[in-house]
TrEMBL record:
The lineage of its organism: Bacteria, Bacillati, Bacillota, Clostridia, Lachnospirales. InterPro entries: ThiF/MoeB/HesA (IPR045886), ThiF_NAD_FAD-bd (IPR000594), Ubiquitin-activating_enz (IPR035985). It comes from the Bacteria. Residues 6-233 form the THIF-type NAD/FAD binding fold domain. It comes from Diplocloster modestus. This is HesA/MoeB/ThiF family protein.
Length: 249
């Protein structure tokens, strides 16, 4: 890494001293290289995250281009992972990138163990909940984000503790309708996920446990609700009980 590239942010609280070095040494798995993922990747690269894995199984289409700002019409038909990794190599050659051009499943979820933190930037709840389960059971922090129309949300699932995304959506039903998506919302929530990642990697997530954050893009307002851990949660509830049982043995 070229240290001079980051000398403006090294003056900041949380990054002074060892903070920036923690980012250089950190690894993040980004699941989803669409609207959210493009902005997340830009934020992580700008911060100087040392190693970034990019997972996505889709090719670029014309209707992606209103919000997926890494891609151009010339990229239509190419794999998103391929184009995103090429952009990253041009933008910051010192960052190690890894490409996973396939869909996340339970069979390959062990990949999360190879990273310090995971970011969910996908547009379907099924994958988000699968990723949540994979991270909770492996004690890996997760940053989830989503957009819908003129709004977007952010939720941090901390390492080894609830509440988790399944507490937020205890009886979630997948919606077959493709969500409406505006480019600025993808940019704002994606960058917020990247900011949350920096705070998590430098150990400054006090007050974010259980905080579901919603941005209203029409009134330009942030709101939040505190989500309580659900004792009957099939993901973090059972995992917590199992962990406690192991510690008492």
């Amino acid at each position: 890494m070229d240290i001079q590239r980051y000398n403006r942010q090294e003056k900041l609280k949380y990054l002074q001293g060892s903070g920036q070095k923690k980012l250089f040494a950190a690894s993040i798995l980004l699941v989803g290289a669409g609207g959210l993922g493009c902005s997340v990747l830009q934020g992580l690269a700008g911060a100087g995250i040392g190693r970034i894995g990019i997972m996505d199984h889709d090719r670029i289409t014309l209707n992606n281009l209103n919000r997926q700002f890494l891609y151009t019409p010339a990229d239509i038909g190419r794999w998103k992972t391929e184009v995103a990794a090429a952009w990253l190599a041009r933008f910051s050659p010192g960052i190690q990138s890894e490409v996973y051009t396939y869909r996340l499943t339970r069979a390959n979820a062990d990949l999360a163990e190879e990273f310090d933190l995971v970011i969910a930037a996908v547009d379907n709840l099924e994958t988000r909940l699968l990723l949540n389960e994979a991270c909770v059971r492996r004690n890996i922090p997760l940053i989830d984000g989503g957009i819908n129309g003129w709004g977007g949300c952010l939720f941090y699932v901390k390492q080894a503790g609830g509440p988790c995304l399944a507490c937020l959506y205890p009886q979630a039903m997948e919606n077959d309708r493709e969500p409406a998506a505006f480019g600025t919302m993808a940019g704002m929530i994606g960058m917020a996920q990247a900011q949350m990642a920096v705070l998590a990697l430098t150990g400054h997530t006090e007050g974010f446990e259980g905080k579901y954050i919603w941005f209203d893009g029409v009134n330009m307002e942030f709101h939040h609700t505190i989500i309580q851990p659900q004792s009957g949660c099939v993901v973090c509830g059972g995992h917590a009980q199992k962990q406690a049982g192991n510690e008492s043995n």
